[in-house]
Amino acid sequence: MSDYNFQQIEPKWHKAWDKERLFSVDEKNTQNKYYCLVMFPYPSGDLHVGHGRNYIIGDAVARYKLMHGLNVLTPMGWDAFGLPAENAAIKSNTHPKLWTLKNVKRMKEQFHQWGCGYDWAREVTACLPDYYKWTQWVFLKLYEKGLAYRKMGAVNWCPSCQTVLANEQVADGGCERCGTKVLDKDLEQWFFKITAYADKLLSDLELLNAWPERVKIMQGNWIGKSAGAQIDFPVDGSQDVLTCYTTRVDTIFGATYMVLAPEHPGISKLIVSVPNKAEIQEFIQKARTQSKADRSSVEVEKEGIFTGRHVINPVNNRKIPLWIANYVLMEYGTGAVMAVPAHDQRDFEFAKKYKLPVEIVIQNSSLRGAPQGDEAISAYEGDGTLVNSSQFNGLNNRDAMEKIADWMQEKKIGRRAVHYRLRDWLISRQRYWGAPIPIIYCDKCGIVPVPENSLPVLLPEDVKFKPSGDSPLKDVPDFINCKCPKCRGNARRETDTMDTFVDSSWYYLRYLSPNDNAKAFDTATVNNWLPVDQYIGGVEHAILHLLYSRFITKVLYDLKLVGFKEPFARLFTQGMITKDGIKMSKSRGNVVAPDVLIQKYGADTMRLYTLFIGPPEKDAEWNDRGVEGAWRFLNRVWRLVNAIIIETPDSQSPNLKRKIHQTIKKVTENIEGGFYFNTSIASIMELVNETYQYAGVQEARAAAEAIVLLLAPFTPHICEELWEALGHKGTIFKAAWPKYNPEFIHAETISMVIQVNGRVRSKIDVSLNITEEELKEVVLSDEKIKTWLMDKPVRKFIVVPKKLVNIVI
Predict the structure, then answer these.
(1) For the chain, which residues score pLDDT lower than 50?
(2) pTM, two decimal places
């Protein structure tokens, strides 16, 4: 064979896999099924090597499972709606559909070039009607179940993108997409009632034994279940009541004021007749221009305004002032907080600034002699003994929590409650490039869902984009104006489109029947194939996509449309590849283009280095010298196998045989135990080194075959070529993954280095039980050593047991 010519080898095997239909699956055949799924990408254009880690890992897993004889389903599709396409349309006057499909074509070419195998007959594209018809169907199912609803509320508004953002899409007070400071705005919006499933989403995390613990912790924290109490504070001089939620009912006797979030819906009624109404409204407007991240930060300056109203603390009938403050958010509790400045640091800082009372109700021995009450220098947030708390004085505060809660329930001034940090999923977007929400507004019938047999509500393509970012749908009368499905009178369509996370919340079901025009998915088929056996993607999706997918699956389960409660049985989250210490990004100018690498070294080199760069679950720094090292290694493998093919073995090596079986064991366990491809490749490299030393022995061919088989999931093109050169017919991925024999793992012989005057001159295999006299005889009869001794007398014969012999002459 000639030199390693990847330019010829890689296209050859791409064609062979396509002809073989290597990755095609008949969904009716569920014997030995294995659903291996990589999170489908947003088609944004050229992929860089940072993107590649996700897809190369997924392809390696799929190929490894193929070699175990499994029926592997590995589909691919496109998360194709979203803001970037619309922004590109505004900027370059290119329709989002054209921009998106052009990028899809380019990324498919890259996947093909990298050797990533998918069942392309199952391809789905979220922006095409044959897919978003069923996204609209999912919406209707939630609407029927009372889980999709519309309400007026404060939302995160990006003035640049001209759209609403979910809380999860706001990063450090700015839009995660463009960085513009996010504002508060009141709009009528569509929500999915994910809070109805908060408890199931939390408790069922225990079922996910094959998920990374940190992802489960992140989801648990986001759901944020806490046990506490709701307490009713009557508004002085009225019949109204303000209810607050607290986890610290033990501090209720120390509440010296109440504070409302600026967004609290009750404020407008409370301040109708107060003298400083205009000043309060001005403060509210100012507070709402602050980002929620800033407002909830412990460092932010606490600011507030007195409403002129008071509420009654129900446990002692004390009248306390009612304030509005920037540090209280509607997202937490009820948007009303009983302020206990002696035992909450944020309340303490506010009380000090506005000269509000600070009253101790939890005493601790460590506080004796320290300034207390109004003289205190900070809040005490720890445990202790209740004081100034009526009949509960003297109780440990933890015990007092239960007794006070019981007493409040008995008096009907409060009640035990469970609170979740999770808020309902805001799905409305005031954008064009998304799935239209299938709702019609009729003056006579009100809100009317589009009938299922009228889906899809098609997104009109002949639209004009405004530099302001306003949705062009508002200017398409043919889209907006329609007939009411109930009364057939004139009506109008909803112009908001759905959050793209709705598209990705169910796509894993559609892959089983991507061309079905009658239904979104076949229940029997998805029940046979799901949950997904292995899901692979970035940890940045731990809260949004993964939580939403779990929610939609649970809704479909309750509707008896699927027979499983969780969509993904196993989850692997790969780390990022960084360059110059930061995440790769075009804007930072640190992107490494795979096309250049592949042109110079081939796809297998890029794949090998990507997998070898470090533990796959951790971030890793890209190093161009490492790519050259991967290239050199593949050339060594190429030369080794070719040398072995033409060798005529004349001896045996138990050590090489042992090394083969040890390597098979290590690589198999490393892959099965957590996709440790980096250590697997390191083990194969050791076997290559060992085989070079024994290239002329009978076991060398077995070593070559083992090397090629073990490397195949990582570097499939070169391994296919070498497998063929070794005399095998058909694709290597129909060959069986090698098995090790435990009997051959442990050494019966050892390899010892032989030195002459401290310099290595030979290496021999000897029995573990050899005596020193027998060892001396074997060493002195070695032909290489005889050459170096040249009949000179041996002055010393030094033995380091099981390691080396040094002959001093």
Answers:
(1) none
(2) 0.86
Confirm if 67 and 737 have CB atoms less than 8 A apart.
yes
Closest CA to 268 of 258, 252, 280: 280
Q: Where are the beta strands (DSSP E) in 727-790?
A: 749-756, 759-767
In this structure, how many other beta carbons lie within 10 angstroms of the beta carbon of residue 336? Answer: 21
**The token pair that represents 39 in the structure block:** 């999170």
- The conformation of residue 39, written as its DSSP 8-state character, comes to P
Q: How far is CA 521 from CA 122, 297, 525, 581, in A?
A: 13, 45, 8, 44
* Nearest CA-CA partner of 707 in 676, 681, 746, 670: 681
Q: How many CA atoms lie within 13 A of 457 on its CB side?
A: 29
Token pair of 412 as six digits:
């009907």
Pairing assessment for the beta strands 170-171 and 77-78 based on DSSP bridges:
unpaired
Distance of alpha carbon 59 from alpha carbon 78, whole angstroms: 17
pLDDT, tens only, 771-809 = 898 899 999 988 889 989 988 899 999 999 988 999 999
| 602-634: b (≥16 Cβ within 10 Å) or e | bbbbbbbbbbbbeebbeebebeeebbeebbebb
User: Comparing C-alpha atoms, which of 673, 59, 604, 751 is closest to residue 665?
Assistant: 673
Query: d(Cα 445, Cα 712) in Å, to the nearest integer?
Result: 63
The predicted pLDDT at position 53 comes to: 94
CA distance 424 to 521: 26
- Euclidean distance between CA atoms 672 and 681, whole angstroms: 14
State residue 375's pLDDT score: 78
Alpha-helical segments (H) within 240-378: 267-270, 277-289, 292-296, 345-354
| Residue type present at position 13 | W
Q: Please check whether residue 303 is in contact with residue 325, taking contact to mean a CB–CB distance below 8 angstroms.
A: yes
* pLDDT at 383 (0 to 100): 93
Q: For residue 778, is it left (φ>0), alpha (ψ between -120 and 50) or beta?
A: alpha
Distance CA 414, CA 408 (A): 5
SS3 416: strand
| Residue pair 738/67 in contact by the 8 Å Cβ criterion | no
DSSP state of 541: G
State the Cα–Cα distance between residues 75 and 40, nearest whole angstrom. 9
Tokens of 280: 């309060």
The structure tokens listed for 98 are 């054209």
Among 23, 10, 28, residue whose Cα is nearest residue 734: 23
Sequence-ordered list of residues with C-beta below 8 angstroms from that of 686, at least 6 positions apart, any chain: 659, 663
Among positive and negative, which fits the CA dihedral 18, 19, 22, 28?
positive
* Residues β-bridged to residue 428: 498
Q: Are 151 and 192 in contact (CB under 8 A)?
A: no
Asked whether 438 and 148 are in contact (CB, 8 A), the reply is no
Nearest-angstrom CA–CA distance, 638 and 706: 14
Instruction: State how far the alpha carbon of 737 is from the alpha carbons of 36, 239, 290, 730, 760, in Å.
Output: 18, 76, 59, 15, 37
C-beta of residue 627 within 8 angstroms of C-beta of residue 607: no
| d(C-alpha 132, C-alpha 126), whole Å | 6
Q: Could you tell me whether strands 71-73 and 33-38 are parallel, antiparallel, or unpaired per DSSP bridges?
A: parallel
Phi, psi of 746 (to 5 degrees): -90, 140
Q: Distance (Å, rounded) from C-alpha 131 to C-alpha 515?
A: 9
